[in-house]
Amino acid sequence: MRSSQTETAVLGGLSVEPMTGYALREAIREVLGHFWSESFGQIYPSLAELERKGHVRRLGSARTGASTFAITPAGMTRLKELLAQPLQQVPPRNGLMLRLFFGRHLGPEACRSLVRQARAEAESRLSQYEAIYQDVMNEDDRTGDRPYWLLTISAGQHAARAAVAWADEALAALDQLDQPAPAASESRRKI
């Protein structure tokens, strides 16, 4: 399953413009990085396999000796097939949630520190999304990709805003853990 996702990212990147493997990796990191990542160890074998199947072709070597790859018509067909497949869900792995779930062993202050860090990272992502948004809006949209790219940026902005709101709620809940519990006799009197 992972290989078809890598194939989708590689073909998708090359559908924007021909690139070397290194440039493709950098484009995935810089452009798709807010929702997708690929390593050199995934990209280069995928490029070789896609070339073998006729989905990409080498345009020759760049000055550095690296080959530039371009998507072929068969590759565009394959990209459309991959994009039309049902989403492949992966099990979530969230280190913060794992730590908070067992937070009793860390204590409220350590948990607050983790949540504050998560909040700061979400705020940073919001700033990054704004910069990406401005870059996309300032680029010439000769391919017609802009509206689709903006959808992914919007999703990232919403997720980051939700993370900030959740962090604020979590910090308030952790603050409540430091409050002494009402005595049993006080609870009975109020009833």
Q: In angstroms, what separates the terminal alpha carbons?
A: 58 Å
CATH class designation of the largest domain: Mainly Alpha
In the CATH scheme, what's the topology name of the largest domain?
A: Arc Repressor Mutant, subunit A
* Widest sheet: strand ordering: 1-3-2
Mean pLDDT: 88
Rg: 23 Å
Largest sheet: 3 strands, antiparallel
> Beta fraction of the residues?
5-15%
What is the name of the CATH architecture of the largest domain?
A: Orthogonal Bundle
Q: Which word captures the global form? A: elongated
Number of helices: 8
The structural class is: mainly alpha
The ordered string of helix (H) and strand (E) elements is HEHHEEHHHHH
Share in helix: 55-70%
What keyword list fits this structure?
mainly alpha, 2 domains, 68% helix, elongated, 8 helices, Arc Repressor Mutant, subunit A, 191 residues, three-stranded antiparallel β-sheet
Walkthrough of the structure:
By secondary structure, this protein is mostly helical. The chain has two domains: 2-84, Winged helix-like DNA-binding domain superfamily/Winged helix DNA-binding domain (Arc Repressor Mutant, subunit A); 95-177. The chain is 68% helix and 7% strand. The chain has eight helices and three strands; from the N terminus they run αβααββααααα. The protein has helices at residues 2-16, 21-32, 40-52, 73-84, 95-101, 108-138, 146-177, 184-190, and strands at residues 19-20, 56-61, 67-71. A three-stranded antiparallel sheet has the order 1-3-2. α1 packs across α3 (40-52) and α1 (2-16) crosses α4. The protein is elongated. The model has no long low-confidence stretch (mean pLDDT 88).
